[in-house]
Design a protein that fits this description.
The protein is α+β, with helices and mostly antiparallel strands. It is built from one helix and four strands.
């Protein structure tokens, strides 16, 4: 028979799987928003990826507790130099996208 400890470990495993699945979805959301922003700005997203820099719990404007995530990415404006950018998500909403100072073509 199953014991209470088995149920605890199963619940913990399911919670970890759900978090990993949800975190992957948020990374994809950040990548789509970054691609669109780079296309709108006329710059190139390098390596077609974003990297999680940090996460924490923060409250949104309505006072609800949400996961705050910061992702880094690299871009180019000239095709020869690499620059860094940062995108911040609060829950499933893009809060801001910042670019390092870079040369304009």
């Amino acid at each position: 028979m199953y014991e209470l400890a088995d149920l605890f470990w199963l619940t913990l495993l399911l919670a970890a799987c759900y978090y990993a699945w949800h975190a992957h979805g948020m990374k994809e959301l950040a990548l789509r928003a970054t691609r669109k922003y780079c296309a709108d700005m006329g710059i190139g997203l390098l390596d077609d990826t974003v990297v999680l820099r940090g996460f924490w719990w923060k409250r949104d404007a309505a006072g609800r507790l949400r996961m705050w995530r910061s992702f880094l990415f690299e871009f180019t404006a000239t095709g020869a130099e690499r620059y860094r950018g940062k995108i911040v998500l609060l829950g499933d909403t893009v809060q801001n996208i910042e670019l390092e100072p870079h040369r304009l073509v």
